[in-house]
Amino acid sequence: MIKPEQVMQYLQDHPNFFAEHPTLLDSVQLSHLDEHANNDQVISITQRQVMMLRKKNELLQDKLLALIEIGEQNDAIGEKMHRLVVALLGFNSLTEMLHGLQYHLCEDFSIPHVALRLWQTDDLDPPLPASVVDTVSDQLRIVTAGLSQPRCGTDVDDEIKQWFGSDAQYLRSFALIPLKKTQHFGLLMLGSPEVERFYPDMGTLYLARLGELASSSVIRLMRQSPQTTADTDESTP
């Protein structure tokens, strides 16, 4: 008696077998479970191949639709980031920039809970105006200095939660976005009442770009702030 292994080996050794005997494809019957009728049916190899190709095609279509959806989402985010860039370029003071940043994150990105703190560092020249410098703990500065990229998750220090005031009790996830030149000079915090809004393994590309935009805007406006200009004029003979 011929063993199944022998048949399999023969077909592997003769890949053109069915091409040379095409009628066998229609005559060989296979058992197939009809998921809709919930019973077994007998179909030919050709029918089975067609069904497998159709199923594979459906999977590819699903993947294509998913990629298209991701592309559309990225396009939408890109457009929102563009509007934010245009807005940041139009601000003329740090105070205006801080309020405008909060407004655009709320309106365009549906992030109503935004907090930002700035502190003085040695590499900021000119230094930050005293009106926008915040008092933060040394521990928070150390934590921020350890952030090379934005960090997302559900747990943050109590000191940071206090930045959100009475809304802190409703927030379930956070994004910590460091602001830096050479050294870290600030921290932009985003909060959400949704646990899955800012989760640990999420991509942070756009959050990193947001941090770069905010950092550049702070440095630009710091250089042209009225306080800095006044200090320069007073020191000129």
TrEMBL record:
Q: What PANTHER family does this protein's entry cite?
A: DUF484 DOMAIN-CONTAINING PROTEIN
Xref: Gene3D superfamilies = 3.30.450.40
Q: What is the protein's name according to its record?
A: Phytochrome sensor protein
Q: Name one Pfam family in it.
A: DUF484
